[in-house]
Amino acid sequence: MASPKRQQTNRRAIYSTLRQMVLTLQLQPGAALSENELAAQLGVSRTPVRESLILLAQEGLVQVFPQIGSFVSRVDPAQVADAQFLREAVELASLEDLPTDIDPALLGELRDNLERQQRDDLGLEEFFALDEAFHQGLLRLSGHANAWTTVAAAKGHLDRARRLGLYENASPAVFVAQHREIFDAVVRGDVPLARTAMRAHLRAVFSDIERIRAHSPELFATDSSAVPVRRNVVVWERPHA
User: Fold this and answer.
1) Which residue from 17, 133, 185, 225 could staple onto 193, CB 3.0 to 4.6 Å apart?
2) At residue 168, does pLDDT exceed 70?
3) Residue 51 and residue 115 in contact, taking contact as beta carbons nearer than 8 Å
4) Contact criterion met (CB below 8 Å) for 221 and 62
5) Is residue 238 within 8 Å of residue 226, measured between CB atoms?
6) What angle do CA 90, 194, 175 make, to 5 degrees?
7) Confidence of residue 241 (pLDDT cuts 50, 70, 90)
8) What is the model's pTM?
9) Interatomic CA distance for residues 228 and 238, integer angstroms
10) pLDDT tens for each residue of 120-147
11) Phi, psi angle pair for 72, to nearest 5°
């Protein structure tokens, strides 16, 4: 019999795997979830899968409807806005705390990060990881690296919206240019410009949402009372009065 510690480690691993599948859109917004299929895919029993789905439901990334089933939550623009508000507040505030003598080693890491962002063979998930590291690196410059944990925990819906935007744009070049503008302003000590560029960069997700929602509305939550109906395909409907 597996030890309790081993079982707990396995549960954390399954939860982390399923969460990443949701955030990276391997499990699409609105998709029906089968505990049996997920357990078979991951090579585990249904129990850790069920427990992981409960945790993801608590985060708002999964919805469980009694007698209907479990579904990946559709991207909720309201939750995106809340996470964006938190992230913007933290990152803009951190720019105000930049020291006059910025650590050259940290600047070197950010320069290297920017160079890697411009690789022609860079996949979108690789770019996403570099994007995360770039923003976390900016927080490190100001001495607020630990704040990233709080930001990261709150932005599940935001990260899915950002990925949808990346896939919509096909190339991350526009985001790389925005990163470069922010970095150059930081190096010059131009905090007002860095804040303006950062704000515009972070808020770009809102225009992405509107553009994507115009042709793929099924990916987004529009009505808190909507519930899925299992037919040949899953259909989301508002309950009848």
Assistant:
1) 185
2) yes
3) no
4) no
5) yes
6) 85
7) very low
8) 0.85
9) 9
10) 899 999 999 999 999 999 999 999 999 9
11) -65, 130
Query: Do the strands 227-230 and 69-72 form a parallel or antiparallel pair, or are they unpaired?
Result: unpaired
Whole-angstrom distance, CA of residue 68 vs CA of residue 32 = 10
Taking only the tens place, the pLDDT of each residue in 216-231 is 999 999 876 677 765 5
Residues 6+ positions from 145 with CB-CB distance below 8 Å: 136, 139
**Residue showing tokens 């090579």:** 43
Length of the chain as a residue count:
241
Taking CA atoms, 80 is separated from 22, 147, 203, in Å, by 15, 18, 11
